[in-house]
Input
Amino acid sequence: MKFRFMLIPAAIIASAPAAQAKIFMDIAQAQQLMFPGATFEQHFLTLDQTQFNAIIKDSNVNVYNREVKAWKVSTGGWFIIDQVRGKDDWISYAISLSPEGKVLRVEILECLENYAGITNPDWRAQFYGGKRGAQFENVVIISGSTLSCGQMVSGVKRILSTHALILSQLTG
Output
């Protein structure tokens, strides 16, 4: 049997649609959407090894970044931005928590266009009311976005543990 390499003309490759990241909203827009009229006090922190390990143990989810980007909200609760790994790129999202640590809302800030299923408000609403320890077993996995859905579940679980173990202990 004889093998041949097929050369594909560069014009065909160049005309193939590239995956594009879509920006749905910026941080300020998400803050005002989630907490209209509120003010935000920045609480960025770097997890030490003890905190890092505690979050992994509590959530049963890996921590990819020791940097926590959180804001305490003047009307109560927390606003947190985070990223999870999709199949081909990172998904940036914002999550709002009540003072008791329950999920109020999840908004996608930026992701590839082919992750569109997780941008559906009805899909994200499955997290609302969730709190630390929730397993989110009933979250619908969208065909074609299986990895993105699973990563969002993991991200929310990790943020809930981060709030319970670290953020809820902060004052000021």
